[in-house]
Write a structure and sequence with these properties.
With 77 residues, the protein is an alpha+beta fold. The protein has a domain of 48 residues. Helix content is 17%, strand content 40%. The chain contains two helices and six strands. Strands 1-6-2-3-4-5 form a six-stranded antiparallel β-sheet. Strand 4 and strand 5 form a beta hairpin.
């Protein structure tokens, strides 16, 4: 990834961003789209696990847990 491109995994707790796009394919991409992670959607990082493997995000009024390996593929601005 380029130095100026950020992923959802980089978003600090308490901050908000908007989805720019997805780098995933197949069923994983479909799952992210079904969760409402489409370009322009506002996302807020609410909680991060102590291990850093999972984080909870507020997406369209729902609190959703996303694994770090999936959050890396969600591009934000």
């Amino acid at each position: 990834m380029s130095a100026n491109v950020r992923s959802l995994a980089d978003l600090p707790t308490g901050e908000r961003c908007r989805v720019a796009g997805l780098n995933s394919t197949g069923s994983n991409r479909r799952r992210m789209l079904d969760l409402g992670l489409v370009p322009g959607t506002e996302v807020e990082a609410v909680l991060k696990s102590p291990s850093g493997g999972v984080a909870a995000y507020l997406i369209r009024g729902a609190l959703i847990a996303i694994r770090r390996e999936d959050a890396i593929n969600i591009i934000i601005y």
